[in-house]
Amino acid sequence: MDEVQVVVAHSERATLRVGDVFLKVEADRERMDVEVEAMALAPVPTPRILWRKPPVLAIAAVPGRALGRLGEPSTASPAAWAAAGAAVRKLHDAPLPARPGRAGRRIDELTADLDSECELLVANGVLPADLVTRNRQVAEAALRPWTPVFTHGDLQIAHVFVDDDEITGIIDWSEAGRGDALYDLATLTLGHEEHLGDVVAGYGTDVDLDVIRAWWSLRSLLGVRWLIEHGFDPSAPGCEVDVLRSLM
């Protein structure tokens, strides 16, 4: 009999694996709706939906292995990273979905949240003031007008699967929608700057690298306290705090 593996579990969602089936339990019904709609529209490989009975969504495992993990060296080849960039470009070139996504927050709202979060990080002694101040300055470059595209919204490398340097599946679409293309590229390369060139080569068009680095700072600053509060360690080697230090 297959064992039940807890893939992730926190107050917002839990994901269990039983054999080749993943069971996603969502506290927010709308996130499940977003995921199902996005997978139906995305022009890239996505998991097959087996059944849906809110709050549970059952999907089939995709073949291959994850492109990598945050905090760990990626064993994927440069060609695999380039293939990921090409898949992201294909997504970004697709017709816009109806909903705004995580990568599509309004600039004023995002700026207010970032400033508030930076104050809390310093006031509560979570991070040194100079580290927060410098990364807040770097993050400013991301707070600019952008043309909306179809974004994944949570394109971390653990969500991209490859086999023989081909993309076999992209998972976890609950944050998908209209958004900033460079947010996706930044999320994909967070903590793996050495592969940024491969991703951009596969993406096939010029991108503003300063904005990608700005998103690294912004995403990390906004994520540190949430990660701690939900049982993750952003100060582990290669993770968000190291990303912030690398941008000093």
From TrEMBL:
Domain of life, per lineage: Bacteria
Aminoglycoside phosphotransferase domain location is 28-204
Q: What parts of the sequence cross the membrane?
A: none
Pfam families from the UniProt entry? APH
Instruction: Give the Gene Ontology MF terms in alphabetical order.
Output: transferase activity
What keywords is this UniProt entry annotated with?
Answer: Transferase
The record's annotation in InterPro entries points to: AGP_Transferase, Aminoglycoside_PTrfase, Kinase-like_dom_sf
Q: Supply the SUPFAM superfamilies for this chain.
A: Protein kinase-like (PK-like) (SSF56112)
Keyword Transferase included in the entry's annotation = yes
Protein name, per record? Phosphotransferase
